[in-house]
Amino acid sequence: MSYNVVVVDDDEIILFLHSKIIQAVGLHDSPKTFNSAVKVLEFFDTLSNDVDPVLLFLDINMPVMDGWGLLDIIHREDFDKKIEVIMVTSSVDQRDKDKAASYSKIINFVEKPLNKASLRLLNLRF
Fold first, then answer.
1. In CATH, what number is assigned to the domain containing residue 60?
2. Which of 28, 50, 54, 95 falls between 20 and 30 A from 5, CA-CA?
């Protein structure tokens, strides 16, 4: 499956690192990166409904709107973009993993930072 790959994290170094790792494993040549959930929502508004689905690598803890807030928006009935989410976080709190399991669009939960091995274990088709 072909994806529009998007990485959202408030840490610019993590954005750069994750983008390079995604490129290195061949998942996407130029993933889009955003340092806030608000900015990625603006990007989603520009997408037509007939584009490839979005594979969203999403951080939990961010200022203004955290990952949970973004997830609440993309799980609303009126949100019509095709999105699959991989939570990428430094949290080791079991409550975060349990909460993530309650969102249907989350396909995996991985600890930061991403690396080639963790991406390959996700069994994504690339």
1. 3.40.50.2300
2. 95
